[in-house]
Each structure stands twice: as structure tokens, then as C-alpha cells.
Amino acid sequence: MSRSVGIRAVLAVLALFLVAGTAACGTDSGAAASGQHGLSTANLTDIAPEPVGPPPTPVLPATVRSFDGADVTVNSADRIIAADRYGTLIQTVYALGLGANLVGRSTSGVFPAIADLPIVTGGNGSLNVESILALRPTVFLTDSTSATPAVREQLRAAGVTVVYFDPQRSMAGVAPQIEAVAAALGVPDRGQALTKRTRDEIAAAEASVPAQDKPLNIAFVYLRSSAITMLAGPGSGADALIASLGAHDAGTAAGLKEPFTTITSEAMISAAPDVLLVMTDGLKSIGGLDGLLKVPGIAQTPAGRNQRVVQMSDSNLLSFGPNTGRVVAALSKAVYDPAHA
Predict the structure, then answer these.
(1) Among 210, 164, 181, which Cα is nearest to 49's?
(2) Which residue, 224, 236, 262, 321, could crosslink 88 as a Cys pair with Cβ 3.0–4.6 Å?
(3) Same domain (yes/no): 166, 251
(4) Digit-coded pLDDT (tens) for 295-307
């Protein structure tokens, strides 16, 4: 299996679950470089992406190259289903100004304006072909991980116009993904406008990160009960978010070679994070902060000793879409000013 396929496979597994925790505080002996301790939450004041303009008029038909290698012609964007395991695609459609055209979503597509849309995925994020067909979409946007080969064949046989997108989520992939969705829906100019706005928001959020004499070591830890505890490294996506905070990715700095590695005491202690970044439901699945401190090696790190943990909803944390600048800003506030996060 190639490295890129491996990354996508791991990220797809992560996206099946959602992550939150319980507040707690600890002692400040051996205080982390941030001078803070305790659990804080990175929140978006409004999780709905802001449309970049009024509803556009798509210029269709449009023929685009789908991520599965096929050329797909989209003739209508009147009835759009957008479903992936991160909620990125539906956020993008909405931010392009086409929210009124949406007729279906995935369980991970969560914000009030679309909450009443029918769901076309199961609890584990798998696509339900019958639910998709019942909504009579003129175009279905998904990714090549959410749709298994069997599902792809069923959709093809049913004559559904499907555009597949890259399942990998990364900081570098934000702009290309937005522009790919816009091209498929016949609104390329809107895609360029949304890309510019998103890049500007990311740049502004990064510029507002407080300067540090010594950059923090931040580790992203993926949790799914005590059975699955993984430390992120290069290519995880979290490493790019951590870099945007002016910090070092602790897993990468410790020499990890894979995007996610099962946690051992040695790896955790070697990483020596000042702050742990987790997804909210994952923290809850392990019993909150107390459970986290029982994961091998964590209690022996500066972050563990100071109980410096930042949590964020998984539907936001690694979605890498139109909200990315706001995600960086919220994480910065939680990391550097946790009392007001």
C-alpha cells in the first residue's frame, strides 16, 4: 500500500467518529511553555460557513475530472447531495452560496441551516444508496473513500451523476478542494472568491497567533476508547494546523514517520508535548481528562503534568474547508488564552 493511500485510509477511519471532554484543572508545577494549565475548548461562535455572496446562477453543463479518474458532465445543480466523512463538501457548497440547492447530507454535515436535510449515511459514515436515490439528486458530491467500490457501481448503474473528490484533508488541500467543488457546480468564479477569502482568513488567523520565545510542542492525539490511542505525526493534517499556531508538531519532532502511530509510553515521553490537542468525542470516549491521563506515557509529559489539553469538535477540527481560518483562530485562543476560549 502506498504512503498516500495509507494516509487516506487512516484519515478515513478517524472520520467515522466524533470527539469532547470534561473540564478539569491541574497543578502548575513544571508549567508548560504557555504558562497555562487545565482543559480548554476551541469553539466556533457560528459553525455555519458564511456564503461568499448571494445565490449564484450555475453555468452548466460543466465537464470535470472526477477524483476516480473519470470525466463527469454535470447538467444541473438544482438538487445537490454533498456527503463525506468530514462535512467538508457540504460546508463548501453552502459557502459558495448554493445552500438552497442542497437536498441531502452526511451525519458529519452539521450546522443549523442544514440540520433538517435528510441524511444519506449510516452511523459509521457509510453511504446508503437507497436514501441517495430517493432524493433524486441531479448531482451527488462525495469522495472516493466514503463511496466503496460496490457503492460506486450501484450509483453508476442507477445513472446518478457523481463527482468524487480527494478524501485526504490537509491545509494545502483547502483551496484545490474548494475550486474543484465550484467547477463541478458551474460556479468557478465563486470558487475563486471563496478560495481568496479562506486564504485571507487563514493568513489573518496565523498572523494573530501570539509570538512565543520558545515555540510550544503540541501533540494531536486520536482517541477512540482505550482500545485506540494514536499519536499524530507527519502528514496527519493536524501537523499543518499545529504549524499554523506557531508551534512544533510533537510527533514529527520526536521522529515519527507515519501520520498516526499507536501510542507507547516511550513515544509519548519522547514527544514531550506541552499541550495535547484532542477531538471532543474522543476525549469523552476515554473517560475525559482522567481517562486521558491513564493513556501510556501521557501523565509523564509536560502536558500531562499540567493537564494542558485543548479539545475541539471533530466536525470542525480536521474538516479543512471554508471554516479553516476560523478553526485556526479558535485553536489559537484555546491554546494561548484558555481562560477565554
Answers:
(1) 181
(2) 321
(3) no
(4) 999 999 999 999 9
